[in-house]
Amino acid sequence: MPWIVANIKWIMIIAGVLTSTMVYAVIAPQAALESTFGEALAGPVSEVVVRNWGALIAMGGLMLIYGAFHPPVRGIVLAFTGAGKAIFVGLVLAHGGRFLGYQAGVAVAIDSLMVLLFAWYLLSYRAMKTRV
After folding, report:
1. Which whole number is the average pLDDT over 85-96?
2. Phi, psi dihedral angles at 96 (to 5 degrees)
3. What confidence score (pLDDT) does residue 42 get?
């Protein structure tokens, strides 16, 4: 059994816990924006959008934790959360280095690693299943 397949449960738990910390944006949207991107948005719409953004990310983290304990849903959970993380990384990097000096830079590095691990698992698991 490939290393990634044998260890995906713990990888998903750690990734889920880290991802779930974005619940911070639900509680303190302006502070979350400023610490993540170094900028703030004004107005009630920004409160709604940022809180929703934080909630969706946190829910992805909870999905990762759930998937760690329920193997039948791992594939879809990893594909969904991996795609979301890849989109986030792409959007941040599309602005060059503008946001990399803030927590967004740390998130890009960690999310990129998660995307690679998730893809590695999905490919390894698929290859393992086709050999059987």
Report:
1. 97
2. 70, -140
3. 85
Question: Is residue 1 predicted with pLDDT exceeding 90?
Answer: no
Position 7, amino acid: N
- In 3D space, the residue among 24, 29, 6, 17 whose CA is nearest the CA of residue 114 turns out to be 17
Domain boundaries, the chain: 3-131
Token pair of 44, please?
């009630």
List alpha helices for 21-73, DSSP H. 24-27, 29-37, 44-69
- Contact between 87 and 60 under an 8 Å Cβ cutoff? The reply is no
Q: Report the distance separating Cα 37 and Cα 95, nearest Å.
A: 11
CB 19 within 8 Å of CB 81: yes
- Residues comprising the chain, all counted: 132
CA of 72: how far to CAs of 56, 68, 69, 75, 78, in Å? 22, 10, 9, 7, 11
What are the b/e assignments for 58-75, b being 16+ CB within 10 Å?
bebbebbbebbeeeeebe
Q: ∠ at Cα 73 (129, 128), nearest 5°? A: 10
User: Within 13 A of 129's CA, how many CA atoms are on the CB side?
Assistant: 8
What's the predicted TM-score (pTM) here? 0.93
3-state secondary structure of 77: helix
